[in-house]
Amino acid sequence: MRAIPAFKLTPEPLDQEAAALPPFKWADAHIGKRHRLGGQPDFIQADDVPTCSCNKAMSFYAQLDSINDEFVLGDCGMIYVFVCFDCLTTKSVLQSF
Ligand SMILES: [Zn+2]
Known about the structure:
single chain, binds zinc ion
């Protein structure tokens, strides 16, 4: 299993609709800013690293945060993406508070 170094991802609106989205009204300030490439998953619930269908441990690739109150994943949840560098299978996991 190859570990990817950690990068912070900062979303940049690509159009006026995205730029005009209102922020969360009540969520903590860090909610919506937890996007990450590589490093370790910041699981909300128990660790849940999937196993590939080829039986290899999968590498953590990225986590994607909820966007705002309109595009929220459950209760301020995140999507975790994993990849197998051997067979190029991907799997994702969603966790929420
Ligand atoms: Zn695999």
